[in-house]
Amino acid sequence: MKALTGRQREFLGRLLDLYQQEAAPVHYSIIADRLGVGNVAAYEMMRLLEERGLVQSEYQRPEDMRGPGRSSVVFRPTPLAMKVILGLANGRWSEREWEQARTRILDQLRSGKAADYEALLDELLERLPDEHSPTVFLTQMLTAIALGLHSVKGVADLKGIRNALRKVGLPGELDLSALAGLTVGFSLVEHLNRRYGSALAAHAKKYQAVLAGLTLENRGRLAEFTREILDVVGI
Fold it and tell me: Is 205 found in the same domain as 163?
């Protein structure tokens, strides 16, 4: 497949994020609004991506419409879309990006500047939708999950989950892939800011897809990193 342009990557990435957040096809006007472009430009780009097999369109009528009415065109990403997005960074583990992302996050957590974990969590959730490096995405996602748990560390019902997370990746213990389910569960936790829970749950599918492409060695590195950040934040 011919490589995507930067603008095509931007539109496709935004569609993927919105589709995961809403769990439903997305109207092109919403994409236009999020990217600050006109509706016509967004519609034409969706049609272009559809020609390349990355997007599928369908017609949808408003639920409350009766009788003859005008249908809306909505778009959903195809299975190929996620593979292409992950392939933008060759889908490979980057040693340089891993060391930089790991060091930066641990420094933030350990420094006085990161004492307000809520501010750091806000920052991570803002970055996640536009992060196309598999290495950096996973590092940021795992940190966001840990900080989400930190924000509800006083909730007795989650004690078992926190204890299990401390052993993540160890033989016979919780696997990293199980954390995708935890992000969905976050959206149901009454004590957690609902915005955080919804944002984390929206990235669960992407998290699973990226994680599935890693070697056992690199999954082990991420598991060790997860235990490390849980120690730093006091879980």
Answer: yes
Question: What are the beta bridge partners of residue 74?
Answer: 27, 58
Q: Both 136 and 186 in a single domain? A: yes
Residue 1 lies in a domain: no
Distance CA 146, CA 144 (A): 5
The CB density around residue 138, as the number of other CB atoms within 10 Å, is 26
- Reading the block at residue 218, the tokens are 């690199």
> How buried is residue 156: exposed, middle or buried, by Cβ count under 10 Å (0-12/13-18/19+)?
exposed
Q: What is the pTM of this model?
A: 0.58
118 within some domain: yes
DSSP E strands, the chain? 26-27, 55-60, 72-77
Q: Whole-angstrom Cα distance, residue 71 to residue 213?
A: 39
Residues of the chain with pLDDT under 70: 1, 62-71, 85-92, 112-116, 152-175, 177-197, 235
